[in-house]
C-alpha cells in the first residue's frame, strides 16, 4: 500500500514541475474536480434517462437529461448522447450504427492525422469495416479534395470520418458534403481534439457546415472529465440506432460521476471559453513561430503553422520523434512522438512530434511563455545542454503557473 501511495505522490509532485504539451490532455478546474467525486461513482444506470433497467436513479436521470439538453442547445443539435466513456467508444457506437461488417469507409489514415479507432488496427477493424484513406496533402496538412473525390466516388463508402488526432486546420466539409451526397455517404467529424475550439466558436462548426454526426472526447481542448460524446442533427431512427449501439452495444453502465462536471465544464466554456480559446490559438501560433525561428521544421508553414491548439514538427534531423520526446521528458517537458505524412508505418519510430498548448494555457501561460518553452526545447534538443540543469530550469519556470484559470468558483453557484 505504501508503495502505491509513494508512487502517486511522486507522480503528482513531478507533474507539478513539468511543462505538459500532450495535445490530448487537459486539467479540470477545482470546481469541476470537487463535483467529480460523489455517490454517483458507485451507481449503475443502464439504458436511457427515465427508461432505466435499475432503480434508484431519480436524480441521476434528471442530471443526465439536463446535461444533454444543455449540449443540444449550445450546439444547435437535435441529438446528444453523453454516455460513451471515451471518444473511441463514441466512434464504435456510431460506426456500428452506420455500417455493417464488410462495408467500406474512408478516413484520413494515420499519416493524415486520423485516430487509430478509424483504422484497421482499432475500432473500425474490430467491427470488420474495410478502411481506406482519403487524399491528404502533407505540405499544407489539409485534405486533398481532388484525390478524395476520386476515392469517394470509386469506393462509395458507407461513411467518411474526418478530424482525429492531428488537426491543424479546418476541414473542407462543405465540399466533401457535395461529394458524399453523390454516393449517399454520411460524414462523421471526430472532434476529440478541437471540441473546445468548436464549443467557443473559434473553429469551424461541423454541424452547420454539413456533417451528420460529431463524435468527441470531453477532456482535450474541452476541459471536462475524461469521457465521450455524440452529437448530431439526424433522423429519429438513426438516433435510436445509435442509442442502442451505445447500450447495450458498446457499454453497460456509463460513468455517472462524470455528468455534473461535464455540465459545469460546458458552463465554464460558455462563460470563459472565448477568452480561453482565443489565448490557446495565440499561444499555438507563438510556439510554432518561435520553434520555427529557432531551427525546427514546423509543419503547416505555408498556412501559418496552425489554427488549432496543436503544433507538429518533423524532427528526423534531430534523431526522430521517439528520441526527441524521450529526451524532453527527461527535462520535464512532456509531449509525444507522432507519425506524420510521408512517415514509415512504424509508430514507435516516427519522424514527428506533436505539441499542444491547451493545458499550459489553462494554467495562465501566454505568448511570452510559449517563446520561453520553445527556447527550453531548443536548449535540450539542439544545444544539448545538461539534462539535470534543464530539468531544474523547467521546474523553476513552471513554479509560477500552478493555478487553473478560466473556471467557475463557489461564488458562481448563486448565479
Describe what you observe in this structure.
The structure is a single chain. The protein is of the alpha/beta class and 415 residues long. The protein has 2 domains: 235 residues, 3-Layer(aba) Sandwich (Aspartate Aminotransferase, domain 2), CATH 3.40.640; 127 residues, Aspartate Aminotransferase, domain 1 (Alpha-Beta Complex), CATH 3.90.1150.10. Helices cover 42% and strands 14% of the residues. It contains 15 helices and 17 strands. The strands form 5 sheets. It has a 7-stranded mixed β-sheet with strand order 4-12-11-10-9-5-6, with helices on both faces. The protein has a 4-stranded antiparallel β-sheet with strand order 13-14-17-16. The chain has a two-stranded parallel ribbon with strand order 1-15. Strand 7 and strand 8 form a beta hairpin. Helix 6 runs parallel beside helix 7. The longest helix has 35 residues. The mean pLDDT is 95.
List how many beta strands DSSP finds.
17
What is the class of the largest domain in the CATH system? Alpha Beta
Low-pLDDT runs of 5+ residues are none
CATH architecture of the largest domain: 3-Layer(aba) Sandwich
Separation, N- and C-terminal Cα atoms: 43 Å
Strand content: 5-15%
Structural class: alpha/beta
Query: What's the story with the biggest beta sheet?
Result: 7 strands, mixed
Strand order of the largest sheet: 4-12-11-10-9-5-6
Measured as a percent range, the helix fraction is 40-55%
Whole-number tally of structural domains: 2
Q: What's the pLDDT, averaged over the residues?
A: 95
User: CATH superfamily of the largest domain, called what?
Assistant: Type I PLP-dependent aspartate aminotransferase-like (Major domain)
Shape: globular
Amino acid at each position: 500500500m505504501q508503495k502505491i501511495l509513494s508512487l502517486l505522490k511522486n507522480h503528482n509532485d513531478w507533474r507539478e514541475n513539468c511543462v505538459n504539451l500532450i495535445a490530448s490532455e487537459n486539467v479540470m478546474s477545482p470546481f469541476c474536480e470537487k463535483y467529480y467525486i460523489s455517490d454517483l461513482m458507485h451507481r449503475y444506470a443502464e439504458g436511457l434517462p427515465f427508461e432505466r433497467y435499475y432503480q434508484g436513479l431519480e436524480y441521476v436521470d434528471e442530471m443526465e437529461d439536463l446535461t444533454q439538453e444543455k449540449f443540444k442547445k449550445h450546439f444547435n443539435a437535435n441529438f446528444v448522447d453523453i454516455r460513451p466513456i471515451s471518444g473511441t467508444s463514441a466512434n464504435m457506437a456510431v460506426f456500428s450504427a452506420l455500417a455493417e461488417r464488410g462495408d467500406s469507409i474512408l478516413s484520413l489514415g494515420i499519416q493524415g492525422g486520423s485516430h487509430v479507432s478509424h483504422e484497421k488496427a482499432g475500432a473500425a477493424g474490430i467491427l470488420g469495416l474495410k478502411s481506406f484513406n482519403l487524399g491528404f496533402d502533407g505540405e499544407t496538412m489539409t485534405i486533398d479534395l481532388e484525390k478524395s473525390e476520386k476515392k469517394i466516388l470509386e469506393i462509395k463508402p458507407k461513411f467518411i470520418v474526418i478530424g482525429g488526432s492531428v488537426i491543424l486546420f479546418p476541414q473542407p466539409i462543405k465540399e466533401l458534403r457535395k461529394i458524399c451526397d453523390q454516393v449517399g455517404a454520411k460524414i462523421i467529424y471526430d472532434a476529440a481534439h478541437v471540441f473546445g475550439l468548436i464549443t467557443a466558436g473559434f473553429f469551424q462548426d461541423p454541424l452547420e457546415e454539413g456533417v451528420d454526426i460529431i463524435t468527441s472526447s470531453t477532456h482535450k481542448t474541452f476541459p471536462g472529465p475524461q469521457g465521450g460524446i455524440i452529437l448530431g442533427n439526424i433522423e429519429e431512427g438513426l438516433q435510436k440506432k445509435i442509442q442502442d449501439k451505445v447500450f447495450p452495444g458498446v457499454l453497460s453502465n456509463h460513468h455517472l460521476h462524470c455528468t455534473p462536471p461535464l455540465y459545469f465544464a460546458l458552463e465554464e466554456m460558455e462563460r470563459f471559453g472565448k477568452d480561453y480559446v482565443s489565448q490557446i490559438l495565440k499561444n499555438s501560433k507563438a510556439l510554432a513561430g518561435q520553434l520555427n525561428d529557432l531551427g525546427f521544421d514546423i509543419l503547416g508553414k505555408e498556412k501559418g503553422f496552425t489554427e488549432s491548439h496543436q503544433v507538429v514538427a518533423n524532427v528526423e534531423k534531430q534523431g526522430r520523434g521517439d528520441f526527441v520526446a524521450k529526451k524532453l521528458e527527461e527535462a520535464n517537458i512532456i509531449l509525444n512522438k507522432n507519425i506524420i505524412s510521408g512517415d514509415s508505418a512504424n509508430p514507435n519510430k516516427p519522424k514527428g512530434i506533436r505539441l499542444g498548448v491547451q493545458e499550459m494555457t489553462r494554467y495562465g501561460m501566454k505568448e511570452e511563455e510559449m517563446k520561453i518553452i520553445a527556447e527550453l526545447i531548443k536548449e535540450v534538443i539542439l544545444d544539448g545542454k545538461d539534462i539535470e540543469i534543464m530539468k531544474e530550469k523547467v521546474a523553476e519556470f513552471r513554479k509560477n503557473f500552478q493555478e487553473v484559470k478560466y473556471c467557475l468558483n463557489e461564488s458562481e453557484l448563486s448565479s
